Amino acid sequence: MQILIVEDELPLMESMVTYLEMEGFKCEQASSFHAGLCTIDKHDYICMLIDLNLPDGDGLELVKLARQNQSSSGIIIISARNALEERVKGLSMGADDYLVKPFHLSELSARIQSVARRTRTQGEEILKFGVIRVMPEERTCFVNDSQVELTRKEHDLLLYLMSNRNRVVTKESIGDYLWGEYGGGYGSYDFIYTHLKNLKRKLLDAGSPDYIQNIYGVGYKFTLE
Amino acid sequence: MKLLTKTTLYIATLSLFLFFIMGIIFFHVLKNMSIAELNRDLTGIQEVVDDIFPHFLGGQLTGLPGLDSISIEQARTGMDPSDQFGDTLMYEARTNQFRTYRYLQFQVEHGNVAYTVKLFKSTTPADQLVEKVTLMMTMMVILFLAGIFFLNRFIFANLWKDFFDALEKLKQFDTVKEPITLGEPDVEEFMELKKVLERMTLRLSSDYRELREYTDHTTHELQTPLAVIKTKIELLMQSSNLGSGEMQLLQSINTSINHLSRLNTTLALITRIENQQFTDRKEINLSAMVNDHIEMFQELIALREISVETDISDKEKVISMDMGLADIMITNLLKNAIVHNEDGGRIFIEITDEVLRISNNGPSLKFNEQDLFRRFVRDTKKTGNFGLGLSLVKKICDYYGFKLSYMHENSLHIFTIQFLS
């Protein structure tokens, strides 16, 4: 569960490390292009987070090298630039995902897990949480042994919550992750509430305990407690 | 009017005026000189006539060399006895024409009888001379004007060459490109012009580059601290010993940070468009793109129970523009139509070869219609809205030469983009 983070902004690096370590990842840190070069081969990373703007080199070069060296690792570009051409360039260099600063840590975590699933998993992976089992590849969900029919968005929402279990997840982060530009945007996250209500009802109906804890005015927490 | 035409016109007007005045003066001077010459001749003959007057009386002499005609008669009483010059017309039977003559009239006393003598001399030879000289003058003027005309062309082709070169290069100058470099003119003024132009374009190019870098850096530099604040707040939220009040404080900071970051991104985008940094053009199928976006907004549309009707012509409308900008343009227009709609409202989308028209229901504008596309103009009651979406659309339309307009008709807000070629 090793992750490499190449980021020159140290406070941001610390935040990412703290959050990801809470999730159970081990983080290798590199604060420059050069340090990144030295650590690229150190471990068999499940995912590499690479900042494009590094003081001593172009992050894209690092992406290219990382792709050559570790073909089975996921690569996520972290950049302050939100231009389509940069995004396309990054992805064509071999990155799996592109995250624009500032981002939600919960979104980062969900994306790492999603990339890791895509690049690492051999065969069908089963995610478990309490009595819930989810097979992301097939988009199926079981409570105990009975299958629950979920819509695409409800499924994505469940996966997102499971990726950030025991964490407070804000409404904004859910909106940004699942809908991006096409969500409320103008401070309206009402439709998230609708989806969450439906998901919650379907899980309860299938006999699951209520894992979704509502934190008033802030968001939600997916927890066994 | 072209510089060459204007110069030629000025020179021609002035020359014609001057030549006209000069011509009149010249004509009069010449005329007076010829009259004086005739008078002198006639006075000379008068002296001869005085001396040999009896010969004329006797009829032995009827004329003198240099004299065309002479008349002698007894002076009538009361006539002015002094010498008088004058002009007169006389009929000439040979040519059947009246001709002008200069005459000198004087009195001669002979044997106590006073006689009036008139000496006539034709002015025709002198007039012919004046005529010929005038004709030659006119020909010279015409030749001179033609000369000026061709000289002007020559001067323009050679002397002003550097100027026109500079003008041509200046026309093609673009802040995105390199500053212009001009040849070495041998005219001092053009040398100065060259220096000024080269300095100015160099300045423009470097200013533009600096502005671009500045914007780029500012956005980047702002996004990073925002990212730090945002992640720290998210970490803080994970502490188990926070009460509901603290959580909501954090959330409120979080929301503001999100706004700030979105604002920053949008402003940077507008600046990038203003700086003309989008030069990559792709052929985009507008109809397909609009349909895709409606699909993407389905959640939001369903939530507000809005019905969307499309009227898209069979012929696919293809526009040539940057992919990202096209995406932003459509997203913002649709989002605007959804967010400022009313629950259960409607959206009409029409695409033809000339226009993209999006109309929606919704409450009337809370501000002036003219301010609709200006930055930060918004309905202040709606939170989280910057009033940047439509100004961004306007900027994109301006950039590609599309005409964006707004109308309010039958309680519908109608936004139209006209694709002018």
Detailed description of the structure:
Chain A is an alpha/beta fold. Chain A has helices at 10-22, 33-39, 59-69, 84-92, 105-120, 152-163, 171-178, 190-205, and strands at 2-6, 26-30, 47-51, 53-54, 57-58, 74-79, 97-100, 127-129, 132-135, 140-143, 146-148, 168-170, 212-215, 219-222. Chain A contains eight helices and 14 strands. In chain A, helix 5 crosses helix 6 (152-163) and helix 6 (152-163) packs across helix 8 (190-205). The relative contact order of chain B is 0.06. By secondary structure, chain B is of the alpha+beta class. Helices cover 54% and strands 19% of the residues of chain B. Chain B starts with a helix and ends with a strand. The interface between A and B is large, with 43 and 45 residues.
Distance between the termini of chain A: 25 Å
Strand content of chain A: 15-25%
- The mean pLDDT of chain B is 86
Number of helices of chain B: 10
Q: What percentage of amino acids of chain B are in beta strands? A: 15-25%
Order of strands across the biggest sheet of chain B? 6-8-9-11-10
